[in-house]
Hints:
Layout: E1 4-7, H1 12-23, E2 28-32, E3 49-52, H2 58-65, E4 70-73, H3 80-85, H4 87-108, E5 112-118, H5 141-160, E6 163-169, E7 172-173, H6 186-195, E8 201-203, E9 209-210, E10 213-214, H7 215-227, H8 230-233, E11 236-240, E12 246-247, H9 248-259, E13 266-268, H10 283-289, H11 297-310
Parallel strand pairs: 1-2, 1-4, 2-3, 4-5, 5-6, 6-11, 7-10, 8-13
Antiparallel strand pairs: 9-12
Amino acid sequence: MAKYLVTGAAGFIGRSIASVLLARGEAVRGVDSFITGKRANLAGLEAMEFLEGDLADPPVCAQACAGVEIVFHQAALASVPRSVADPATTNRNCVDATVNLLVAARAAGVRRVIYAGSSSVYGETPTLPKHEEMLPSPMSPYAVAKLAGEHYLRAFTRVYGLETVTLRYFNVFGPYQDPASHYSGVLAIFCRKMLAGEQPTIYGDGEQSRDFTFIQNVVEANLLAAAAPAEKVSGQMMNVATGAAVTLNRAFDVLSELTGYRGKPAYAEPRPGDIRHSLADIRRAQALLGYMPQVDFREGLRRTVEWYKAS
Length: 311
Ligand code: UD2
């Protein structure tokens, strides 16, 4: 019987967590609807018990949670512009799915749920770095949905005693991130295009910045959140990032070096719902989890480019 459940196991972050758990010899179940997850991402995860299904269907959640002790809830429709184009579908796949999962987790006697939160919940507030005491100010339907999920987790801790932890990820990138959709993360899109010799487009002037976080740091934070004592972490939310901001223009320059791309980027209108600057204060995750980012932006990007080249 699986001890761990990874939702969104055919997605970028989910498959990365599952892979490390399996390498440790853990019994893992994965669930994915393939709305954005890819079958190809399951390669190498053959030891995982896999369930195809949509968490917006309560019976799928019940089946997924049966016998499980710890859930890594990574399934989501992760994209600001997708949520701007279709808020109801984002709500279904982020909010309904999360509530259904929590109800099933409680019914199945799951001990802890770790949730993929998002830096987008901070919104366009001038304070930098963003720290967890700040009042959230979500700007996009996606940010609202991610924040609603956090609140549901906390409510389930308060009213039912389910252990929950929210990790607010800041712009995660790395191997297995889908580069092919226009809803993909910017670094994945740029890697694919620049390796193919195609011109990438920067929305806005390129001076917007992000605390781009390499996947390995995020996986590590999840494992720490699973192992931390409940009295320290249950009902808490914390930033998971590197604590360093990089502008898109700078990211483009580093990628030019790493990919050998010789051209200039195209510039287009800024994207609606976009945030200008995002940078995390990571002291809470350091204090509560002992989290320290192991891989910095440049090294992470180097590994990512190597991976896209090889795949
Ligand atoms: C948000 C969250 C992030 C995560 C993610 C899920 C913030 C600060 N971050 O990421 O934590 O939850 O949503 O999807 O809210 N861009 C271009 N060219 C492109 C694609 C994007 O210039 O081809 C720009 C885009 O306009 C934005 C930046 O790159 O200014 C980053 O965009 P993104 O879609 O990679 O991620 P973002 O910041 O919306």
